[in-house]
Design a protein that fits this description.
By secondary structure, the chain is of the alpha+beta class. It is 68% helix and 7% strand. It has 11 helices and 4 strands. The protein has a 4-stranded antiparallel β-sheet with strand order 2-3-1-4.
Amino acid sequence: MADGAALARAPKAEELPPALRRNAPLVPTDSSASRALAAVIAILTFLAALCAGAAEIVASSAAQWQGAVANEVTIQIRPGPGRDTEADVAKATELARDTPGIAGTRALSKTESERLLEPWLGSGLDLGDLPVPRLITVRLTGSGPSADLPGLRQRLVQAMPGVASLDDHALWISRLSTMANTFVGVGVGIVALVLLATGLAVTFATRGAMAGNREVVEVLHFVGADDDFIAREFQRRFFRLGLRGGAIGAAAALGVLALGGTLARFWRASPAGDEIEALFGGFEIGWRGYASVVLIGVIASIVTGIVSRVTVRRFLD
């Protein structure tokens, strides 16, 4: 009611002095400064959305890696003087098969065990005279907690002390989880910094708009408009700018992520595709990733509106 009364008491445009006559809104959204601000918001939203998508890809890939690693354990048989390594491998395999929760076992041959050392020692070396340990991969049923791994480890130590050992990959899973959580934390931090930069850009843009429209604000105060009315006007205009920039940035990020997934699927049958899949999995962020990208675009527009309103109120106070 107060705003309506203030507007009713406002003089008509033709009654104002020529210097105060204007047909544009209080905060124009189609000026060069407004378009520049929308472009800045779009770029910052695009970067924040890419960081969020990358963090989601790493998190999902790490979960797949952890599931694959946690679903298998490895038995290592070390050759020793006077021992029959093949007999030790067969005995360890039999003990693993008799353990509850074991889905299957596979003993690697001597050639396969030596081939595992090629990434570190290179190919073409004669490892026949070296005591290369033999490995037995053991697949667990389900997620693995039902398997009696402590009992299997104890039986291996009792049957072949100093020869057989069980590795449940707990150290690698812990390191992988730490790496994934660190990367996700860095991604969240970058998104927060980008949103902070968006707020600072909106703050300077709002102050510039207030300085450029000082005489209009004074006239509005003169005819009875309160600070809330002026702040809402600025908030509405800047929210539209933020919504436009956030939508453009989020759409561009979705396009880049979708393009990356398409290229990964196209290259999947090639050696490069195998490397990409080994590092990033299927390069698919899922519905949570897409939802986070859209949410960042919405948050950017909300931040723009709130920051502009707070800045206007501080400026008027």
